[in-house]
Amino acid sequence: MSDAAPRRAYYVTTPIYYVNDKPHIGHAYTTLACDVLARFKRLDGFDVRFQTGTDEHGQKVEKSAKAAGSDPRSFTDAGSQKFCDLLAFMNFTADDFIRTTEARHINSAQAIWRAIAKAGDIYLGHYEGWYAVRDEAFYAEDEVKPGPNGKMVGPSGAEVEWVKEPSYFFRLSAWQDRLLAFYASHPDFILPESRRNEVVSFVKAGLRDLSVSRTSFTWGIPVPDAPGHVMYVWLDALTNYITAAGYPDTNSASFRTYWPADLHMIGKDILRFHAVYWPAFLMAAGIAPPRRVFAHGWILNKGEKMSKSLGNVLSPHELVNEFGLDAVRYCLLREVPFGQDGYIGRETIIARINGDLANDLGNLAQRVLSFIAKNGGAQVPQPGPLSSADQALIGAAEKLLDTVRLELDRQAFHRALEAVWLVIGDANRYIDKQAPWTLRKTDPARMATVLYVTIETLRRIAILLQPFMPSSAARILDQLAVSARDFAVLAPGQGLVAGTPLPPPAGVFPRFVEAADAGR
Ligand code: MSP
User: Fold this and answer.
1) CA-based, 20 to 30 A from 228: which of 243, 325, 447, 496?
2) Pair (374, 502) in one structural domain
C-alpha cells in the first residue's frame, strides 16, 4: 500500500463498563453510537474493529462484591455477562469484548507500567488526599465540598474519603506543555469543541502528579516488582484500548492495523481520564495517542443524569420490549443532539414513532409498495424519461451518502438522520404532487416513472438507514428485492432493475397505540 492510499481501517471503542453496574439506557447509548459508526464504516468498505468490555478491578468492585456476599471473581463473571447479554439484546456488533481480569490485559497493563517507569515517569511517594470510590478518582482540596448528608463530596456528587497510603506517582505535572502542544496540533482530538476548551483550560491551570497505585486493598493488577501495590484502576482500565489491539506486541498485524484508535466514544463524565491522563500515559510509554475522543452528553431522567446511585434508571429491556428495538435505537440518536444532554422518555419515543417512523418513512414505503403490488404488476416499474422533479428527488437521494458520511465523521448522528428525513419529506411531497393514482388512468407510462423514482429513492434511504435500524431497513430492502446492500450500490448508475418481481408488501413501522386506547 502506498503512503497516499486512504486509511481503510477503523477502530472504535466504548468505555469498558463498571462490572458492578446494572446495564441501563445510558450505557446502551454510548455503545449504540459506536455500533452505528461500526456498521456504517463496514458498509462503507472499512476494516472495522469495534471494541467494548468490562472494567473489573478496583476498590468499588471489591466493595460491591463484598456487599453482595460474593468473591470478586464470581461477582465479576456474573456482572460481565450482563453487559455481554446487552450486546445481543441491542443487536450491537462488537468485534471483541474485553474483560480487564483476562490474562492478555494483565500482561498488557504491566507492560505499559514498565514502559512508563523505564522512561522515568513513575516514582514512589506517599498519597494523602481525597478519593471517591464511586468515581475511582482522586480530587484536590478545592474540588470537594460538604454534601447533603454532611459528608464531603467530589464534583460529581460522589462521596469522598480521606486516603493516606504509600503510592507510586505518575509525573503528570511534567506533561502539561506536551499535552497542550498535542491539543494544538490535533484540533479534532477532543470533540465537541466546548469539551476541548474545558480540557485545555484544565491543563493550562497546571497539573499535579497522579497517584497510580493503591496499597489499601488487593483487587487489582499487581504493580510489577512492587509487592503490596495494585495499579490505579484508571491506568489499568484505559490500557484496555491497546490490549485489545494486541499490545504489548506493537509489531503485530493487529496493532499496526488498528492503533492509534480512530475514536474513543465516551460520556462527558470521564473526559479528564481520556483526554488528559490517557494521552500522557501513552506518550510517556512511547505509544501514539488515539485520534479522537468524543464526549457525548447524558441521558437525563427527571433532570438528572440517569444512574444507579440516583435510582432513576430507564432499563433498555423495558423500552425495547414496549417499543421495539429499532425504534429505540432511532429515538436515542435522533431525539438529543449528540454531544448535548437530553431527556428521553416514553412520550418522546411515542412521538417519534408515530411521526418520523410511522407517518413519514413507514407511510412512504407502505403506500408506494402497496400501490405497485395492486397497480404496477408487483414488479419494479420501467421508468421513462425523467422530468426535472424526478431528477431533483433522485439527485437529493444521491447526495445523501456524502452528507451522512460527513456528519457521522463528526459524530453528528442527529444531523445525519435529519438529512435523511429531509429527503423522506421530499419523497412524500413528490408522490402527493405527482399523484400516481390519477396517472394510472391518464398516463400509465408516467405513473411507472413516478413509482420507479419513489422506490429508487426509498432504496437509497433504506441502505443508509441500515446502521441505525438494521432490522427495519432490512425489511424494507427485502420488499424492494434488493440483495446488494453495502454502499457500493449507491454509486451513480446503480439502481433498481425494472421488471424485478417484488414480494407482497407489509408495513414496517406500525403506529404506537397506548394499550388503554387499543381496544377503542
Ligand atoms: N469504567 C469506566 C470507564 C472506563 S474506560 C477506560 C466507566 N464506566 S461506566 O459504566 O460508569 O460508564 C460507561 C459509560 O456510560 C460512560 O461513557 C458514561 O458516560 C456512560 N453513561 C453512564 N450513564 C449515562 C447517562 N445517564 N447518559 C449517557 N451516558 C452515560 O465510567
Assistant:
1) 243
2) yes
Q: Is residue 3 part of a domain?
A: no
**492 in any annotated domain:** yes
Cα(481)–Cα(107) distance, integer angstroms = 50
Residue 133 C-alpha from the chain's centroid: 26
Q: Could you identify the atom of ligand 1 that is nearest to the CA of residue 266? A: 17
Half-sphere exposure of 433 (CA within 13 A, CB side): 10
Judge whether 499 lies within some domain: yes
Those residues whose C-beta lies under 8 Å from the C-beta of residue 27, and which sit 6 or more positions away, are: 17, 21, 83, 86
Expressed in angstroms and rounded, the spacing between residue 212 Cα and the centre of ligand 1 is 21
End-to-end CA distance of the chain: give it in Å, rounded. Answer: 65
Its pTM surpasses 0.85: yes
DSSP label at residue 378: T
Q: pLDDT tens across 122-177, in order?
A: 999 999 999 999 999 999 999 999 998 889 999 989 999 999 999 999 999 999 99
> What percent of the chain shows pLDDT beyond 90?
91
6-26 burial, b for 16+ CB within 10 Å, e for fewer? eeeebbbbbbbbbbbbebbbb
Grid cell at residue 200: 485545555
Q: What pLDDT score was predicted for residue 7?
A: 57
CA of 30 from ligand 1 middle (Å) equals: 8
Q: Which tens digits make up the pLDDT trace of 52-65?
A: 999 999 999 999 99
Q: Which three cell numbers stand for residue 324?
A: 421495539
pLDDT digits (tens, 9 = 90+) for 387-400: 999 999 999 999 99
Residues with CB under 6 A from ligand 1: 15-18, 21, 26-27, 29-30, 55, 237-238, 240, 266-267, 269-270, 298-299, 305-307
* Cα–Cα distance, 25 to 306 (Å, whole number): 8
Distance, in Å, from the CA atom of 192 to the CA atom of 496, rounded to the nearest integer, reads: 39
Strand partners, 379: 501
- The boundaries of the domain holding residue 41 are 9-314
